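ugh ok so i messed up the first submission bc i forgot one of the chains. this is the corrected input, ALL of the components this time, i swear. 1285 residues overall. if the numbers dont match what u have on ur side tell me asap before i send this to the collaborators (the ones from the other lab, u know who)
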Amino acid sequence: MRRSTIAAVAAIGSVSLMLAGCSKADNGSGGGKSDAKANAATTGVVNASTHKGGTVTYAMSDVPDSFDPGNTYYAYMYNFSRLYARPLMTFAPGPGQKGNKLVPDLASGPGKSSDGGKTWTYTIRKGLKYQDGTPITSKDVKYAVERSNFARDVLSLGPNYFQQFLQNPDHYKGPYKDKSAKGLASIGTPDDNTIVFHLNRPFQEFDYLVASPQTAPVPQSKDDGVDYVKHIVSSGSYQFQSYQEGKQAVLVRNKNWDPKTDPLRKQYPDKIVVNLKVNQSTIDKDLQAGDTLIDMQGTGVAQQTQAQLINDSQKKANTDNAYGGRLVYMAINTKLKPFDNVQCRKAVEYAVNKVSVQTALGGPIRGDVATTILPPDIPGYEKTDMYATPGNKGDVAKAKDALKACGKKTINTTITARSDRQSEVDSATAVIEALKKVGINASMKQYPSGKYFTDYAGVPKFNQKNNVGLMMMQWGADWPSGYGFLQQILNSAAISDSGNTNLSQLTDKDVDKMLAQAISEPDLAARNKLYAQIDKKAMDDAAIVPLTYFKVLLYRSPYATNMVSSSAWSGQYDYLNVGTTKK
Amino acid sequence: MTELSKTGSAVGEPVAAAGDSAARTSFLDVRDLKVHFPTDDGIVKSVDGLSFALDKGETLCIVGESGSGKSVTSLAIMGLHRLGARGKNVQMHGEIWLDGKELISAPPQDVRRLRGRDMAMIFQDPLSAMHPYYTVGTQIVEAYRVHNDVSRKVARTRAIELLDRVGIPEPAKRVDSYPHEFSGGMRQRAMIAMSLANNPSLLIADEPTTALDVTVQAQILDLIRDLQKEFESAVVLITHDLGVVAEIADQVLVMYGGRCVERGPVDEVFAQPQHPYTWGLLGSMPRIDREQTDRLTPVKGQPPSLINVPSGCAFHPRCPYADVPKDNVTRTQRPELELADGGHWSACHLSTEDRTRIWTEEIAPKL
Amino acid sequence: MISYIIRRVIAAVILLLVVTAVTFCIFFLLPRLAGQTADQLAQQYIGKSPSAADVAAVKHNLGLDQPVYEQYWHFIKGIVTGADYHFGPTTLHCNAPCFGYSFKNHVAVWPELTQRLPVTASLAIGAAVIWLLSGVTIGVISALRPGSLFDRAFMGVALTGVSMPMFFTGQLALLLFTYQWPIFGRTYVPFTENPAQWANTLIPAWCSLALLYSAIYARLTRSGMLETMNEDFIRTARAKGLHERTVVGRHGLRAALTPIITVFGMDFGLLLGGAVITEKVFSLHGVGEYAVQGITDNDLPKVLGVTLLAAFFVVLFNLLVDLLYAAADPRVRLS
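and heres the new structure output, hopefully the right one now
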């Protein structure tokens, strides 16, 4: 009796040893110890492994707007939702800029455009099934787009690019109000594997749009609007086992997902757990303890953790300091006197001490000094510095010259910042200091971020009335392209009475023209060239003072496998194939 | 015998005087009692050398102003000063003999066992002295059971019996009432019932009638007197009301500034008071048969500070006869108790002649 | 007695109505008075660049196009009779008591609250037991020996406890006992699932929260006891020859505890409305956290729900305290 027990224990021990040996042999870097260096995941795959099993635990300090792929607007949800919702196209898991590459997902290939980029046709893969085994058809994709873009009173949280770009002469009211079988006329489904989008204007980056989870199929019979989130029907490699609003989501393998239909997903872990509303410092500690593998939001560790990590060479090796596809900048109101004069704007460009701003924002870990509008991880970026100053610390003489050219000795103006973002307030203070040296007196007004665009800085009339000449701002693109980035902040058509994002109110015909030209240009290289030109033109207009290229500091768990920090996800790790070496 | 040898023979401490038979000790014998409270301002000498004795069946009234040390004396006998947070700081000297046992040097547990059984106390304000959250019955039961190993039921019967004895109507019903549901007089009766629970041989009543109206006062005093007769206990009654004294006391002790200034059988003291302070007390006594206007002036001035007791006679700053010439006496000399006829003691520098003259000529006619 | 309770309940209902009305005004009336339009309000609950039709539809769905008093009336009516919401293909019925649907993610508030309440209650009850026991014990011992080393030491600790913010002690407790020496669990487990785990994960939170309160209660008990032990009835109890422990326990503490019960009722009721910072620090998904979520999202129904719940508990525990008071102190009559 006793003997056999010992033998059994010994047997179990040796099996686990063998398993450990196996997994070691498999990937060479298992067992929780990684010899990867800092930033390794921005240049290559860290802990590449095909090891299956285990639970991958995600945690986030907030709650996502929604797990419903048709009702979300967060990059991390775009990233994560692919585990259970396959969009037509997506980004290939790859480090850094390599992650910006579009690959077909539900579709079998990229969209075929005709009509100069106004009509886009996709063929979806054969043999696709939902978690319940029912087949996925192109009609489900059409329905997904309809519900997410044309019923915004119900599903209001995602963007509405399809609504903006699809033809809709009949004013289709969405699937919940319009129960006709036809649905939106501008999306055609000639057969179960084909879907055709008819746009109202040429749009050569449509593949980026269909990379949104809004194209992930939703079976109409299972959709009950806002409640769909409680029983999402999976088309991906995982399906929901449980979902508790604001607390936890648990995903398990989807047995009806067929790897033959999916070149991207590998279905490594047995289970995926997402813990919501966990204190950020707790997440950071759990990450280091190996109890949480990924901080889902991917916005970086807490301030105090950051100091710990970068001062400890061992811990620092497990960090990635990645660009977040985001620019921290200050918009100059081109419609407000005297900033309607480009020379006055140039004075600001020269005067700002970007190093002190960078310091106020948290130092180089939180961003590199920026000299262009497009950040380096967005296609179209070209390194230039139109308003170069010594050491990026501002040039008082040049600024004063510009001010003289503008016919001013002093300027009194107001600068706005979001009161609940301390680093933004601090950076505005640094700007004010620098401007004072050249004779521009700016006083700060702070507003809550929730109403910054709807009630304050995003309301041109408000700015005019309150002499707001300068506005602190951050911007990230909805999809990693020059158009995705620049369109909303430079296009004169984007100016609106409230919720305006073209804070400079730039109305430069050349910029508008080049944007329109770029989006109808089929050739990627030619498009990127145009984006670089737009960037230069807008800088020439001195509409924007780029401050820093936003960076995040991520802790890369040594237990997590297949880790790549992708530019397509604002520097987040690509969540598609993260596995674990933990049992 | 050994007990007596402890006494020592302090000057002017007459009670256990050498003349008395050493074998005969009174039931309650207080000898040179000192109760001092150290404070930040100095030592408060609340009682500073007090002696008296009392036998079973006798009633002693201690009179004096507030702050004269009467209440402190009674609490000292009960051993209550030493309890609680501040108990440690109290300095007690002298001896208290109760039925042959010395209490000051006795272990606290022994004194606790005597409390409530051999000696019991009635307090001035029965409303605050009874626990507001417990019924009268519960409180009596508690007092009985702590000294008698009986069931709650037996104790309750005893409580009802006691309430009945002190004249509370429908005792079986009122036993479950709370103190606040009683009238003032009833409450004091209940309080008395509680203190009598274990037939104490010494009953100390600290101003038992002060909080009551006049008619009830008389009833309560009658009750105490009756009970004393019934139980043959010794009673120490503390009061500032000489009317009460006249009604109930066998012996009277006048306290001033923590010391005894006059003591003797009540008839003697009332007929021939020897101390100017006693005169003052008598003068301040309200009388129904007299007009308010020609009342004799009460004692003027404030009671003395117990930290810096005036040197010499503590009463001299207030004494109207301080300037009467005295032989061979300096102001800083303290008058000691001296025995006059009939066991009448007093401590005054005035000559016996002066005192007799002042009393008969100046004081008595005005009373 | 019965009529007393009925009157108190009516008063409580009126109070709750006032509380909700005030919350309503803060959220709806004040922004309107400040010049915000219903459109702007609706825009907060919709994604980027909405069309005018989208805004109008959302405005209508959320009832923002109605006058504030009508919205308020619908809310109150929903609590009593339930309400229907038209989001999407199906009409969502929200059973009474319907606290409305979250504007932001369209989840019914009431089920959320009932799900979260056990977490908050677990936190509150555990912490309350600890702080009552420790606070009262320390307070009594201190009061019996004022000025002693124990008294000074513990009152010093108490002062520190009161002045230490939750986000400090909480983080410290987490760091030490959950990470440095992993004695305690990290993720909340419902009591019904595993009581041992439940307690194990909650102990750091309980202790951190209790530290704050027991400090207050120790001081409260101490001063109450000091006062009570000087009462005449304590002298009487001693004069009866009672043991000192009976005097302290049966006579002293009984009287000193009554005011503490009052304070406790208030504190406990408030805590059931959510211990915001504690829940945040320990990542407990309780009621307080829900309120914070509602405030940051400008999501009125959430805030309203928690406010109402918190107010309800405060009122309830006030009533309980009064009843308890009457039971404890026979002099108190309920009328």
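quick check: The first strand of chain A starts at residue 55 and ends at 59. that seems consistent at least. Residues 2-27 of chain A form the longest helix (26 residues).
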